[in-house]
Design goal:
By secondary structure, this protein is mainly β. Helices cover 11% and strands 39% of the residues.
């Protein structure tokens, strides 16, 4: 379990193809604090550390992870968000994040407002029941608030700290991002389905920001 509060950013040093996926090697300041077998969220994807030596972390990415996340689009030099799992005695500053990506979104627009940045992200239709205005969503592992919601897209506003300390400060229109919806919403929707309720897709008004 994670919180969506990025601890550090790392840089992809190597992507080495394996029989079905690839081995990811990341240079990161928290490498010395990790041990093999630990979980680590990389751009919001829960991976297992298979080796941590010096200033580098090694993890394997399987074919299913490549298929359902944006990790397959990484290249040497890519900057990634890193977060270790939440400790039982830790504070929850963001929201509960599992590291299980629900879908890949696309950055559709970036707009500056003073020192802040508005970002519009397009998401696939199957996520519609799980995204609510003012609710939480993880974008590349970052806990953010849905500040504007439209048909098939939502807005978030990035504060200067987030832009300076995560990969979203380097984001460009067209980039793919990992999306994970709030787990509470998932259970509510599932409970409604089991109760025989029909969830009609609501088409909110256009994003106004």
């Amino acid at each position: 379990m994670f919180t969506g509060l990025v601890e550090a950013v790392g840089e992809v040093v190597e992507l080495k193809p394996t029989s079905a996926g690839f081995r990811l090697r990341i240079a990161a300041p928290i490498a010395a604090e990790l041990t093999p077998g630990e979980s680590l969220a990389v751009n919001g994807v829960c991976l297992t550390v298979i080796l941590a030596e010096g200033s580098e972390i090694h993890a394997e990415v399987g074919p299913e992870t490549v298929r359902v996340t944006a990790l397959g689009g990484l290249s040497r030099g890519s900057v990634v968000n890193l977060e270790r799992p939440l400790r039982a005695d830790g504070r929850i500053g963001g929201h509960f994040v599992q590291g299980h990506v629900d879908a890949i979104g696309h950055i559709d627009d970036l707009r500056a407002e003073a020192d802040f940045q508005w970002m519009t992200i397009v998401f696939p239709p199957n996520l519609t029941p799980f995204i609510v205005h003012k609710g939480s969503i993880a974008v590349d592992g970052i806990s953010l608030t849905v500040a504007g919601l439209g048909a098939g897209r939502f807005d978030v506003q990035l504060v200067p700290y987030t832009m300076a300390h995560t990969n979203l400060g380097r984001a460009e229109v067209g980039d793919r991002v990992n999306l994970e919806c709030d787990i509470v919403g998932k259970y509510v929707v599932r409970a409604a389905e089991l109760a025989g309720l029909t969830l009609n897709a609501v088409q909110p008004g256009e994003v106004t920001h």
